[in-house]
Write a structure and sequence with these properties.
The complex is a heterodimer of chains A (301) and B (384). Chain A is mainly α and 301 residues long. Chain A is built from twelve helices and two strands. In chain A, strands 1-2 form a two-stranded antiparallel ribbon. In chain B, helix 5 crosses helix 11 and helix 8 packs antiparallel against helix 11.
Chain lengths: 301, 384
């Protein structure tokens, strides 16, 4: 029982960056832009969030830095894919390579190649209900699941802005005719998405670890891309997918240290979410309902 | 219009409509380099160095000594393979983002074969390894390709997602059955002596993988530009609808392009295992597959372009490693330059494509102005 509770507690914690990331990616994709810059944006959010907190001593400034970096990354993606209409896959991958490069460059320049780990005092685990276990989580975890996810859903599905966002992703010509500024809306979606991705990355450095290490995101951005498709571009479904992935991940972390489980190739378990997405895509076959303007740049005729 | 597309050096319009701008490509590369220089000079200045001097060290100095010059070729070798692999797929309009995973699949096969061929002479062991790696790479590319062709499922995401899966398989092997029993490190045991790629020159790491890469580039160039197969591939890439209308087997062409692309990426993995690492390691590929996308894009999806771009990035990487230390600039500047070069190039291509479209619209306001982009699986529905 304690084992299961442990795993569930860790599930919520490990799902936090994925929740930020999937919501951010959902916003981008619903507006018609596949943002493969997510991996790099999370990486840059993790690094610049950490560096800012380290230099200023304020974790909140670290969060702010992660948001700013995410806004900039989303804006750059917008410049490439919305304004210039460049190929989205190559732009996103290029953005990821660029942001990882910049983060590691500044890291090396500022902190050197030394082996000594720079640490900050990260956000503590809080337990507002005093129940222990499942409810003792980082504040960012609470923010993610109780604030960001529901609010993001509400904005996307119940507000004028959300309608405009979905319209430019489904049918930009019609949206334009209806008086929606396609370019501005896509920029907004990319920048909001980027800010969320940055926060997701900062969760690692400002809450979970208190330090920055190379390869800290380790492909979680790609996991988010997979989860968004798995969730068929719905926020709740994508977040449910994030929880499921996180459960498997947390379970294998716990099992790994138990006696009798040494020889089990847990890596293959970690490969499951990717494979599940591919299988799910294969099963739904021709019925996958991509956003109508997915991958298409918009130009006024 | 079909004839025009088939005859010309048309590139897939999905790459931001590169088709109409090939003639501008020679001018574009120096331009992209110039803009990249300006952007990245800021990082050099932040590091407290002089940009001109830094760029001299990064780009020119590696070419001035025998050792570093050969290292440039060594570094360019995997990029020649992955660049060619990506370019072939992109030319066909198949967006293979999975060269990294296909490379790792090839590396796994090479290490697996290399560890057991101790009894065979090199003339048998090496072809066996190369064929095995090519097959493994093609197999790793098979599922996304079939999904694309049969169900029109966007290959970008499926090929991309198989990259971390390949890395996890490598990690499972190295932490499990293949862990080196002697050292206990997460590395496979060394491959047999007959499976090691012979060195080309004394006192250098340059191995026959480089020659193999040049052969692949040359053959790919010949096939793409001088044979009916290449013409079909380019036709499918530049306009699948027109190609189908002309009676070409679009799906078959896409499938073959995807598998050949995977096979070449797989051989990149063989070359790294046989020529550099002599074993399967976790750090075998610092993103060679992703860099292949940079190489292919910079090379304008042409084989001579891929060759030049691979050498340029090899030069840059060697320069970033050696000269960076002398100037106190972190070697990661190399990655920043590489990524900036990529972003600037595709931005410039997209800009040119807009102008080209405007131009063509003046001539005839036809369907030629339909926006590019979009997975064929979604957009080109009538092609079933």
């Amino acid at each position: 029982m304690t084992f299961l509770l442990d795993v569930l507690t860790a599930t919520l914690r490990n799902a936090t960056p994925l929740a930020f990331g999937t919501v951010g990616e959902t916003y981008s994709e619903r507006a018609g832009v596949l943002n493969l810059g997510i991996e790099g944006t999370m990486y840059a959010g993790a690094f610049f969030g950490f560096a800012t907190a380290y230099w200023t001593g304020y974790l909140e400034l670290g969060l702010l830095a992660a948001v700013v970096v995410g806004l900039l990354a989303g804006g750059l993606m917008g410049l490439l894919t919305v304004t210039l209409g460049a190929n989205q896959h190559v732009s996103g991958l290029g953005l990821t390579l660029f942001l990882i490069g910049v983060s590691e460059f500044v890291n090396r320049l500022a902190f050197g190649a030394g082996q000594r780990l720079r640490k900050i005092e990260p956000y503590p685990v809080i337990d507002p209900l005093g129940l222990g276990g499942l409810t003792s989580q980082y504040a960012l975890t609470y923010v993610a699941f109780l604030l960001v996810v529901p609010l993001a859903w509400w904005i996307l599905m119940r507000t004028r802005f959300g309608l405009a966002l979905r319209a430019v992703g489904e049918n930009p010509e019609a949206a334009d005719a209806a008086g929606i500024n396609v370019f501005r809306t896509r920029y907004a979606a990319l920048m909001i998405g980027g800010a969320l991705m940055g926060l997701g990355g900062a969760f690692f450095t400002l809450a979970a670890l208190g330090t920055f290490t190379l390869d800290i995101i380790a492909g979680r951005g790609w996991v988010c891309v997979a989860l968004v498709i798995f969730g068929r571009w719905g926020i709740w479904r994508a977040v449910a997918g994030a929880l499921l992935f996180s459960f498997v991940y947390s379970l294998q972390l716990r099992l790994r240290i138990l006696p009798g489980w040494e020889g089990v190739p847990f890596e293959l378990l970690l490969a499951l979410p990717y494979l599940v997405v591919i299988v799910a895509l294969a099963l739904s076959g021709r019925n996958v309902a991509y956003p109508g303007a997915y991958l298409k740049p918009y130009r006024r005729a | 219009m079909i004839a025009r597309r088939l005859g010309g050096l048309a590139l897939p319009r999905r790459l931001g409509g590169m088709g109409s701008v090939v003639t501008a490509a020679p001018l574009l590369i120096p331009l992209a380099i110039a803009v990249t220089f300006v952007v990245t000079a800021a990082f050099v200045l932040v590091a407290g160095a002089d940009p001109i001097q830094a760029y001299y060290r990064f780009l020119v100095e590696p070419l001035t000594s025998r050792f570093t010059l050969l290292e440039v070729l060594v570094t360019a070798t995997p990029l020649l393979f992955t660049g060619a692999a990506v370019a072939i797929a992109f030319r066909a309009g198949y967006f293979n983002i999975g060269a990294e995973g296909q490379l790792l699949a090839g590396a796994i096969a090479a290490a697996g074969i290399g560890m057991v061929v101790g009894g065979l002479p090199a003339v048998l062991a090496l072809p066996l390894m190369i064929a095995g790696g090519a097959l493994a790479g093609a197999l790793w590319a098979l599922v996304p390709a079939v999904l694309r062709v049969r169900f029109r499922i966007d290959e970008v995401v499926t090929t991309l997602l198989l990259n971390p899966v390949a890395a996890l398989v490598v990690s499972a092997l190295l932490n499990g059955p293949w862990r080196d029993p002697q050292t206990g490190f997460p590395e496979s045991p060394r491959i047999a002596e007959s499976a090691v790629f012979p060195a080309l020159l004394g006192r250098s790491r340059l191995h026959i993988g480089f020659v193999l890469a040049l052969v692949v580039i040359a053959v790919a160039w010949f096939v793409l530009t001088r044979t009916p197969t290449g013409l079909r591939l380019r036709a499918v890439g530049s306009s699948p609808r027109a190609a189908a209308f002309a009676g070409l087997d679009v799906n078959g062409t896409l499938l073959r392009a995807a598998l050949v692309s995977g096979a070449i990426a797989g051989v990149a993995g063989v070359s790294e295992v046989g020529g550099i690492q002599y074993r399967l390691t976790g750090g075998l590929s610092p993103g060679f597959g992703y860099t292949g996308i940079v190489v292919a894009t910079l090379g304008g999806l042409t084989m001579p372009g891929v060759g030049l771009a691979a050498l340029l990035l090899g030069d840059l990487r060697v320069g970033a490693g050696t000269a960076g230390r002398a100037l106190g600039i972190p070697s990661q500047l190399g990655e920043i330059v590489q990524a900036t070069l990529l972003l600037v190039t595709i931005g410039a291509l997209a800009l040119l494509a807009v102008r080209a479209r405007r131009g063509s619209r003046d001539e005839s306001a036809t369907a030629d102005t339909v926006s590019p982009g979009g997975p064929a699986g979604v957009q080109d529905a009538p092609l079933a």
